Amino acid sequence: QVQLVDFGGGLVQAGGSLRLSCAASGIIFSINHMAWYRQAPGKQREWVATITTGGSTNYADSVKGRFTISRDNAKNTVYLQMNSLKPEDTAVYYCNVPVLATMRGGWGQGTQVTVSS
Question: Which is the most buried residue in 16, 20, 46, 88, by most CB within 10 A?
Answer without folding.
Answer: 20
